[in-house]
Fold:
Amino acid sequence: MEGIKFNQIGVSFKGSGSYVPEQILTNQKISQKVDTSDEWIKSRTGISERRISSPEDNVTEMGYKAAQTAIEMANWDLKTIDLIVLATSTPHDLFGSAPSIQAKLGANNAVAFDLTAACSGFLFALITASQFLRGRSFKRAIVIGADQLSSFVDWNDRRSCILFGDGAGALAIEATSEYDNLLGFDMRTDGDRGSFLNLQSKNDKNSIIDNIDFLRGGFSSIQMNGQEVYKFAVREVPIILEKLFKKTNYSSDKVDWLVLHQANQRILDSVGDRLKIPREKILSNLEKYGNTSAATIPLMMDEAIKNNRIKQNDIIATSGFGAGLSWGAALIKWG
Structure:
């Protein structure tokens, strides 16, 4: 079976890829740094270890490797790629890392740009790229989620340093006139609650010359109100998914897999329970990787595709949520 038959341009999913750094930081190792324990971290988050970028790793390098694997699965000629969208909040170059990925790939015909929406970033980027395809502007696109949060963690703050890791994931998507496998989507933002999760600029006042002051650029470490973020996620994610099911004439019992932003196992379980989706259909790999921000959803999808859990024509309900505060949902038929 193909997707929905219609007379417009739709989206098909052709490939997936991912990359994680080699360095593994276990809960036991973190407990040597701050006052915590493996049991305490696992019982509250579900995380056992996370990957940490070495000095040789960065968002450009990780995003390139994830995209390369997705392109190989899609079996595309690099010259036929029209668009590269990189979702990241931690670019290697503050002016944008997507162009560097385009150059490393050799996809010289692709326009490339960054999109920043924190942990919602990949889903927002996927929806954005899909609209370019549906609008007939482009035929083929690579959507990447990559973050290097270890560079912005306060490793002396035991409340936050246990949560985050580094990694990248990517999907290759293509326009088609035969069906649309992006079955529906929705996006939301609530800036009034933005103070719950921040990575703010840290600007030191300095002087260029007499009476001409400026602020030297820099960033603070990640600041998070974990309790408020948890309450936000377990309330808003089921609501947006339920609305999406209604809008697309689907229901949770038709879903093969639930792929949520990998932030906390208790959030995943709570959302699944609210939607009456069995635990065996909730995909999770945060035990191994922690919260990799924009990378979590494509990293999880690529893992499930490679080990044959996600199969052709499977229905995937997915939701990203995080800083902004922002959140979104999409219903996907794989293939």
